[in-house]
Amino acid sequence: MRLIPFFPTLIALSLGLAAAQVQAVELDIPAQSLDSALTDFAEQAGIRLLYDANLTRGVGGSSTLKGDYSVSEGLKQLLQGSGLTFSVGADGTVTLIPRHDSSDALELGATTVSGQLDGRRDLPSTYAGGQVARGGRMGVLGNQDMQDTPFAFSSYTSELIEARQAQTLADVLASDPGVRQSFGFGNFSQVFVVRGFQLYSDDIAFNGLYGMLPRQIISTEAVERVEVFKGANAFLNGVSPSGSGVGGAINVVSKRAEDIPTRRFTMDFANQSRIGGHLDIGQRFGEDNRFGVRVNLAQREGETAIEREQTRFHLATVNLDYRGDRLRLAADLGYQKQRVNEGRSVVHLSTTVTGNTLGGKVPRAPDSKYNSAQPWSWSQLEDTYGMFSAEYDLSSSWTAYLIAGSKYTRENGLYSSHNVYGSNGESRIGRLYSPLDQESSSVTSGLRGQFMSGPISHQFNLAASGIWQEKRNAYESTRAADRGYGNLYDDTPSPQPIVSQTYGDMHDPRTTAKVQNKSLALSDTLGFVDDRVLLTVGLRRQSIVADSWAADTGVRAPGYDESITTPAYGLVIKPTEYLSLYANRVESLQQGPTAPTAARNNGVMLAPYRSKQTEVGAKLDWGRFGGNLSLFRIEQPQGVTGGDGYFGMDGEQRNQGIELSLFGEPFDGLRLLGGVTWTDTEQRDTAKGANDGNRAVGVPEFQFNLGADWDVPGVSGLSLNGLLLRTGGQYTEVTNEYSIPAWTRVDLGARYKTRLDGRAVTFNALVENVADESYWASANGGYLTQGAPRTFKVSATVDF
Predict the structure, then answer these.
(1) Helices 71-79 and 34-45, interaxial angle, to 10°?
(2) What b-and-e string marks burial along 204-214, b requiring 16 or more CB atoms within 10 Å of the CB?
(3) What is the spatial distance between Cα 546 and Cα 548, in angstroms, rounded to a whole number?
(4) 186: alpha, beta or left? (left if phi > 0; alpha if psi -120 to 50)
(5) Could you tell me if 672 and 645 are in contact, meaning their C-beta atoms sit under 8 angstroms apart?
(6) What confidence score (pLDDT) does residue 4 get?
(7) Under 8 Å between Cβ of 611 and 248
(8) What protein family does this chain belong to (predicted)?
(9) DSSP-derived secondary structure letter, 419
(10) CA 685, 633, 567, 442 torsion-angle sign
C-alpha cells in the first residue's frame, strides 16, 4: 500500500473484530515490505489497524509469519526491529506508535534513556527471535540499548522463559554461557557463578531494588525479564546486601498488564509425579488504558526426578500500574512459599580428617536419581514482599523517580549433610536445625535528565539509595565427633545425630545481625560527534554500618561504620551503525570479613574492600543476529592470616578471560542463543605463599552453551528446540589436589501451537539431561553440587 507524499495519511484496515477480543488467528504472511505485511496482517487477523504512514517509511522488510498467533504475539513478531510498538483503544482499534516517546523515554541522537519503571511499554524492545532484548537496566543509568552501553549484559525475555518451561531463575540462566549454578552451603538456595565469582540469591535485584525477592529460590511465573549484568557493579547498583556479585549482577523485571488483555492458564507435569497449575490474568482499563492489573497464581507439588525428594510450591502476585502523560506509578505485591522434603543436599569432602582414604581423588558422582538425604530432613521458605514505584516527568528532558519496598522472610529447616572421607563413599552425617527471620527495607530515588553544552550532549544521573536488614536466627548442630556414620552410595536411613551445639532460642530467635547500606551516586554520559562517541564517568559514595550479636548470649560483637567511594569509567565508540567498541574500568564493594578464631585479631570486622575490573569489548548488531565479545580482568582481595598471626585482606584472586555471546534469528524460523566463556584464574599472595599460582576453587576453565529453536517447515505451529551445556573441570580446594571433571548436558524439547475451539493452545515438552548423565555440576564454595537427573516436563497453555 503506497501513501501520498508530503501528507501524513492514516490507513484504516478493518474486518470487524476488536484486537482485544481476538485470542488466536491463523496467519500466513510472507517476507515483504512492512507496509504490505501490516496490510496482510490486518486482513487475516480481522482487526482495525491505524498508523501514520511516516512511521514505516524507510523501515526494512518483515520476516515470514506463519502459524497460529494471538494478535499481540503476531504484531510483536511483525514489528521486531522496526522501532514501533502498538496500543489498543477502548473500541479495540490497534494503533502503531514509536517505541519511545516523551512520556516514557528521553531521546538524544542515537542514544535512548528509557524511564525508570518497568511497564511493558517502557522496556527495551526485543531482538530478532524474541529470546533476548535489545537493552536492559544499567542500574543508576536506567534502561540502555545494548549498542550504547560500555558494559556486557544479557536480557532474557518471557518468550524464552515460556519456551524453556523455566520454573526458577536457574532454569532461565542455564541459557547463559557466562553463568553456572550451584546450591548454597547446607541449604537449597540457588547460588550463581558469574565470571568465576559467587552471586547469592539474596543479592538479586527486583525492578532495580535490592532485598525484595525470595532469598533462596526465585520462581518465574510473575517474571517478564531476567537481566544479567557481567562484571563489577558497585557504582551502577550500589553495594549488595550480602556483598556477593563481584563478577556480575542480576535484575528481575516483573510482569505488567499489556495493552491486549491476558487470560492464560497453564497445567504442567514433571516426573515422577510433580503437577502444577499457573493462572496469569492481566487487564488494562480506564481512559487510554492508563490503569493496569496483572495477577499471577501458581501451585506445584509432588515428587521430583530425584528419588524421594518432594516439593510443594505456592505463589501469589499482584502487579499494578498507572500510565499518565507525565506521572507513572507501579506497585508489586507478592507471596511465595516453598517446602522441600528429603531434598538432595550438597556433599562436603573431609580431606584432612584421621582415616581419610580419598587419596587426592574426588569420589564419583552417585547415580543421577539417587538421593542421599535423610528421611528426617526438610526445608521451608516463606517470603512476603511489597514495593512501590513513582516516576514524574518534570519536563520533556528531566524525570524524577522513587522506588521503595519491604520484605519479610521466614525460613526453617532440618538439614542433613554428607561429609565424605572415604574413597568408597564412607561419610559422617551431620545435622543442622536453623530457624531464621529476616526483615528488609529498601529505597532508591533520583533525578535523570539530558541537556546540551555546545556540541556535547549530556545524560545526567543523580541517585540516592539505602537498604536496611535485620536478621534473627538460632541453630542447633552436631560437632564432628558426634556425627552419625553413613555412605554416599547407600541410602539406608541414619538416626538423627545427637545435638551437641545449641545457639539461641529455637522458638524465639534473637537479633543476630543488622546491616545498613546507604549511598549517593552521580554520573554523566557525554556524547561527542553526534553521539557516536559516548564517555560515561561516575562516582558512588557508599557507607556500610554492620553490627552483630551472639545468637546464644546476645553479646554484641565489634562492628563498624565505614564509607568508601567507588568510581566508574566507560567509553563507547560506534564507527558504524553495526559495530560498537567499548571499554570500562569499574569496581565492586564488599562488607569486610571477620577475623577467624585462630588469628590474633579474632572477632575484628575488617573494613569494606573493593574488587577492580578492567574490560574491553565489541558488540555487533546485524539486525537479525548479534553478538558480544569481551576481554575482562577482575582482581578481588582475599583474607589471609600473615606470619605475624594477624588476619588481613592481603591476598588476591585474579580472574581474567574471554566471553563470546551470540543471539538472534539469522534465518527465518531458526533462533540461536549461545556462546563460550574461557577463564584463567590465579591465587596470589596466599598464606606463606603455599598456594600462589593455583587456580581458585569452583571456577571452570571454560563454559560453552548452544541453544537453538527451530520452526519445522511444512508443519504450522511446530517448533523443536535444544540446549547443549559443556563445563570444564573445577578444583574443590585451594591446594588444587582435588578436582571434579568436565561435564556435558543436553536438553531437547518441542513446542506446538494450535487452536482448539477458538482458543490459542500451546503444548510444550522438554527433556533435560537427555542422556541421564551422573556428574558433579559444581565445586563452587568448596563443596559438591550434583547435576539434576533426566527430567521430563510437559505443559499445556490455553488463552481464554
Answers:
(1) 170
(2) bbbbbbbbbbb
(3) 7
(4) left
(5) no
(6) 30
(7) no
(8) Belongs to the TonB-dependent receptor family.
(9) E
(10) negative
- Distance in angstroms (rounded) separating the CA atoms of residues 579 and 668: 23
Alpha-carbon distance 493 to 480, whole Å? 19
Name the DSSP class of 773: -
Selection from 773, 780, 779 nearest residue 788 by Cα: 773
Domains of the chain, earliest start first: 1-99 (3.55.50.30), 254-799 (2.40.170.20)
Contact in structure between 706 and 723 (CB atoms under 8 Å): yes
The CB-side HSE value for 695 (13 A sphere, CA atoms) comes to 21
3-state secondary structure 619-645: EEECCCEEEEEEEEEEEEEEEEECCCC
**SS3 state of residue 71:** helix
Residues 6+ apart with CB under 8 A from 508: none
Q: What is the pLDDT of residues 224-261, one digit of tens each?
A: 999 999 999 999 988 888 888 899 999 999 999 998 89
Cβ neighbours, 10 Å, residue 165: 20
Beta-carbon count within 10 A of 555 CB:
8
Strands (E), 291-377: 291-303, 310-323, 327-341, 347-349
pTM of the model: 0.86
User: DSSP per residue over 719-737, as a string?
Assistant: EEEEEEEEE--EESSTTS-
3-state secondary structure (DSSP) of residue 373: coil
CB 417 within 8 A of CB 353: no
- Please give the pLDDT value at position 623: 87
Q: Write out the H or E segment, with its range, that includes residue 795.
A: strand 791-799
